[in-house]
Amino acid sequence: MVRPRLILVALAALLVVGVAALGLERFPPPEFETDYVRPTTTAPNPPQGLWEYVDAGVLAVTLVLATVLILRTRNRKLIFALMLFCLAYFGFFRNGCVCPIGAVQNVTLTIFDPGYAIPLAVLVFFALPLVFTLFFGRVFCGAVCPLGAIQDAVLIHPVRVPRWLESGLRLIAYLYLGAGVLFAAMGAMFVICRYDPFVGFFRLSGNWEMLVVGACLLLIGMFVGRPYCRFLCPYGVILRQLSRLSRWRVTITPTDCIQCHLCEDACPFGAIRKPTEPWPNKEYQVARRRLAFLLVLLPVLIGAGGWAGYELRQWLAMVHPEVRLAQRIYLEENALVEGTIDASDAFRALGRSSDELYAAATQLRDRFGIGGALLGAFVGCVIGGKLLSLSVKRRRTDYEPDPASCLACGRCYRYCPKEHERLKRGREGLVRH
Amino acid sequence: MPQRNDDVTRRRLLRDGLWGACLAGIGGVAGFAAHKGQKVDWLWQIDPYKCIACGNCATHCVLEESAVKCTHVYGICGYCEICFGFFDPEPLAINEGAENQMCPTGAIERKFVEEPYYEYSISKSLCNGCGKCVKGCNAFGNGSLFLQVQHDRCVNCNQCAIAAACPSQAFRRVPADQPYLLKSVDHV
Fold it and tell me: What ipTM does this complex have?
């Protein structure tokens, strides 16, 4: 008996010697003598694109509803109910993808990649919350965002985060936004989506690393209100700045502030600002000098950031698979590492020359130099701007939510005696009618 | 106090100007993107001529059971009796016994057609996208077996987790009206 193993080994040896390139027809497809008909290849169609438009529609409706509930009805219970609906719909039902946070990268890729054009629904997801924020403040964060909702739902015992720590941690979000935009522009990857901590929960499956990160964030979120929104969310920092300019926004009191201090600790996100006391004259002089110094410092910070970003280009470029591959091939060709990896095997199988790869990688690294410099300058600008805003004291006579930090959750309303007065008037009005 | 009033007006003017600029900015970006945009969505797909069947597809998909599965283009297939995608490299016997098969889940069905030809078909419900058969078929056969993202399963993540882990950069976005990159007979 001839062992089949031997046949196979012999055949394999023959073939490997005989045929160099992949995918050649080593065995010509047969002409069948029987009436055998080749089956067709099964390629199941993607689900119809209709859902995307339904999503965009639901987003528009929920944003309008959120605006009404937050700014007019001022009812936390209804806001919470809407939030849970959005968590269920955008999160668990639609699996948390696509969301406005990730859409930032799709917009970036549309601008920089001539071969890519953003689908209309994704564009709506990107732009609509921005427009709503310009008019009504962060109503998207308050009641529509599923990532915000899942954190808001687990918040049981908020602790106060010191202002300095909050401002410092928020820098991560700016960096994250900058990095997300840079890597999307370079076509390296969508880093914001890759490291989305909650999408694994929405799908009830995912990479275990991200599930662990998400679980940790939710654990922290039980005591620190919405940690992702405040310290990480790259879309949130855009909404922050737009919200400063919004036409209408959350006010704690429906009419006028009576300085009762009752709302002082109402906000789990540390967004309520106390009335300011007038500065003593002497301190005013110091503050003016400090402001002048910081104004001079701003361009220095931008320059330093840009320089640092440029210097980091090699490191930043390693995010791009092409640059990583070039590095690996270089190491292998110069016998600086032993063995090969899947990526270098694949590279050799495709028959590209390594010089071509090096050229592509060098070009990418140069582009990362420009991008890194811009990223660094952006971060420098953010730090400088933050220092400036800390050294300017706005006169405030009432308790007010900080326009940028307020997530429009509506928790503070019921702490205000004037709000209770308003509700009472409303009820009496109803009875009279 | 005229001085104070003036101050407020100046600030308001600045604010309104910025507000308008932001709105115009959003409009500009949206307009640019919409102008460039086509109506179709994008989906992830594997270029079968770049894929090296490393096995990441089976393990890196966010779904428990990967959305990537083996696809068979029968027009390229040689209908070999001894299929290197079907049989283990060292089979005990040339028959359909599970111990002789390459596929860890027994997802390839082997059916006699006529002497000496056999038809191989993939049972999609069993395939886990490991690519073991693809590797064998590419190395010693015609390469008619290859991996493709199955769009009835794929949840179309904005950043595909397998694409991020793909060593040969074989994943790319394809327009939704051409969702598959099937191998063809006349490919050079």
Answer: 0.89
